[in-house]
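=== RUN LOG ===
request id: a7f3
mode: sequence -> structure
chains: 1
length: 826
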Amino acid sequence: MPEVSEQGLSQAQVRSLTEEGKVNALKEETSRSLGQIIRANVFTLFNGIIVAAMLLVLLTGSWKDAVFGIIIIFNTGIGIGTELKAKLTLDKLSILVSSRSLVRRHGGNIEIDHGQIVLGDLLWVRSGEQIPADSTIVHTWGLELDESMLTGESRTVRKGPGDQVYSGSNAVSGLALVRVDQVGEHGYAAKLAAKARVYKKTTSDLTQGINTILKVMTVVVIPLCLLLIWSQIRAVGGWQTAIGTGLWRQAVVSAVAGVVGMIPEGLVLLTSLNFAIASIRLARENTLVQELESVETLARVDSLNLDKTGTITDGSIVLDDVVLLDGQIDGHIVRQAFYDLSNEANPNGTGQAVLAGLSKEGYQPGPVQGRVPFSSARKWSAIIEDGTLWTMGAPELLLSAFEGDSASVAGRVDGYAKSGSRVLLLARKSLDSVTAADSASQSDEGGFDIEGFMDSPTLFADSQPVALVLCSEHIREDAQPTLAWFRDQGVRCRVISGDNPVTVGAIAAKVGLTGDQIPRIMDARQLPSDLNQLAVVMEDVDVLGRVLPEQKKAIVDALHAKGHVVAMTGDGVNDALALKEADLGIAMGNAAAATKAVAQLVLVDSKFSHLPDVVARGRQVMANMERVASLFLVKTVYSALISLGVVLTAIPFPYLPRHITYIGGLTIGLPAFILALAPNNRRYIPGFLKRVVHFALPGGIAIALSVLLSAWLLPPMLHWNLSKPSDLATLRTTCAIVVFVLGVFVLGRVAMPLKSWRGLLVAFFAAVGVIGIFVPPVANFFALSIPSDRTLRATMIVLVLAAAIYAITWLISRLLGRSRKTATCL
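=== RESULT ===
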C-alpha cells in the first residue's frame, strides 16, 4: 500500500463508536413476520364465515353436512405458502456483497468484516472490490468505479480526492483511501434495499373481482343467516318446540345450507391452484414466477417500461465497422493497428469488441516496440510499430490537439454517435518527421525517445486522423420481433435508461421500438418533478436517458396516475424500486440479487422473447377464470335468492348442505378445474366483474325461481306434510334434482362451444351425477333418492317448467344486453 500520513481511528475510538451503534451492520427484516403472515391468512372474513357455519353443523351432530369446511385448509395453506416464500426471498435481499475490507487504524492496515466498519474509518478501496459504505475519497491512485448497478450508467467513472463514492459501487481499476461518511441503514445501498424489502402484494384484477364478490356476499350473509335460523325455527313450530323436540338441529342445518351456497368457496381455491399450475408451466419455459397473482397481470399491461441494458441489449460491445478517413492508407494496416492498440493486458469492453471482431477477420498480434495503455484519465492509448506512432482514443480529445481542419471529421463522428455507435478515432504519425516542437520526445542522438514517450506520454499536434472504429452494444436477436409483438397487442413500450438519451434513442430506432416512426427521446434531467406534469410529459416520450433510480419509480407512479397498468423490466439495483412499484416487475436472470428479489417474474435465461409466452399464459388464466367465476357466482345468486324466499315464506329450506356439496362438485367444482386449464388466447378486456355478474344473474334467477316454485307448489299438490321427515326428504331430493339439471344447463353454456371436448365434458359430469343416485353408498351419504310414482311424474313436470324458466331468463338477458349495446352506440 502507498504511504499516507493519516493514522486512522484508534482502538478506543473504534470501541466507543461500536458501543454507540455507529457500525456498518444492518437489521434485515421485512415488513411482515411469520406470525403476521399466518394471522393474515387464517383470520379472514371468508374463513370466519365457513368455520362458524361448520361448527354450527357439527354441533347438530350432522358431520356429513360439514364436509364443505375442508376447503379452508387448502385456501389457507396456499395463502401462507405464497407469502412465506415472498418473505424468505425478501429477507435474503442484499445489495452489498458480504466480504472482508481493509481499513487503516492506529497507523496500521487491518482486514475486517464489512459489518465491523465504523463511522469515520479510513477504508482502502482496491480494484475488484465493492464499496461497503458511503465514503469520501481522501487519496486516489487512478480509482475508477462501475456505478451501473446503482445509477444505470454503463460507463465507468473516474474519481478524485473529495468525490463521494456510494456503497454498492464496484472498483474497476486503481486504488483509493476513503473516509467512511455513512454506515449501516444510512448508506445508499442500505436505503435502496430497505425500500425494496418492504412486502407488497401484487394487485390482481381477478383476485380483486373475487374479493369484491366475497365482500358483497358477506354483507348479505350475516343478516340473512340470522333470518334463516329464525325462519327455520318458525317452520318447525317455534323455539320451545324446536328445543324440546331437538328439531333445532334441523333448523340450523337448513340455515347453513343457504349460507354455504352463497359463499363461492371453491372459486378462491381454484384461483390459487390455477395460478400455481400456470407458474409451473412457465417454469418449464425458464420463467420463474415469484408471486402467483403475477401470471395474469401481464395480460392487463398496457405500458411496458424496458431497461436498455439486459433487455434490448445484452450489455456486451460488438465491432460494427472500421471507416477510413484517408483514402491513401491501406485498410489492412489500419485494422492491424486497431488490433494491436486493443491488445492490452486488460482491455476494456470496447477493446475486447475490437479484438473479437478483427480476430474473426484473421488478424493476430503484430510487433509492438512501445505501448501507452488506455487510461480513462487520458482517454487514449498509443503504440509504436514499424516507425509509426498510432494513437486511438476519444475523437473530441484527439481532434482538440490536431492543428489541421478537423470540422469534417468531427461532423462524421457526431453523425455516427447519433446513430448509436461508440466512436474511437485512430491517428497516425510517422516518427521520421519529428519536429523541433517535439524535442521532448527525442533522444540525444536525435531519434525518437520511445522510453521517454512512454514515461511522459503526450499527443502530437501533427498526428493525422486516418480512421474511425464504430462499436455498439450488442442487440438481442429476440428484441425486435418481441417489441413488434407487443405493438400489435396494443402495449406501449418505452425505454428507460441511465445512458445517453441520444445513444439509447438510436438503439431504440434500430429495434423498431415505435415501428416506422422515429422514437421521441428526452433527457431525464429535463423531467418535471411534479407528478401530474410528469404524467402528461410521459404520454409523449418513447425513450428516456440519464434516468436516476428515484426517477424510474416516479415514472411508474406517473403512468399509474394516467390509469395505465405498468410492467417494468430491469437488471440493476437502480431498477429495483421501479420494479417494486410497477404492477409487474420483471428481472433478467443475470440481474443483481436485489433486483431479482423484488421482481414478480424472473426470466431465468434472460431472454426477452419469453414475455409473449407469459402474456399468453396470463390471458389463459384470465379468460378461463372468467368462465369458471361465472359458474360459481350462479350458485351464489340462486342460494341468496332461495334463502330470501325461504325467509319471506317461512318454509323449510328445500335442500341440505350435503346436496349442494354433491351438486356443486359435479356441475361447478370439478368441471371448473378442467375448464380453467384449457387453452385460451382471448385478449383481456377490462370489466371482468361486470361480465361475470351479467352471466350469473339469469342462471341464478332461473334456478332460484324453479326451486322456490317447486317448494311452494309441490307439497299442496301432492299432499306432502313437511313436518314429516320422509315428505321433507322427498321434497329436498326433488329440489336437488332441479338444481342439478339446471346446473348442467349452466355448465353447458359456460363450456360452449360444445362440438369439441367441452361437450363430452358436460355429458360426462351429467352422467356421473345421475349414476351417483343409483349407487347406494353415494346416495346414502348425500341423502339422495330416486323419485317414484307420482313424485317422479311431478319431478318431470317441474323439470320441464324449470327448463322453460331457464330459457326465458336467458332470452330476456340477451335482449337487454343488445338494447344496452344499441344505446351505447347511439
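=== NOTES ===
The first strand starts at residue 100 and ends at 105.
The chain has four domains: 11-26+95-197, 262-279+618-825, 287-312+476-606, 317-473.
=== END ===
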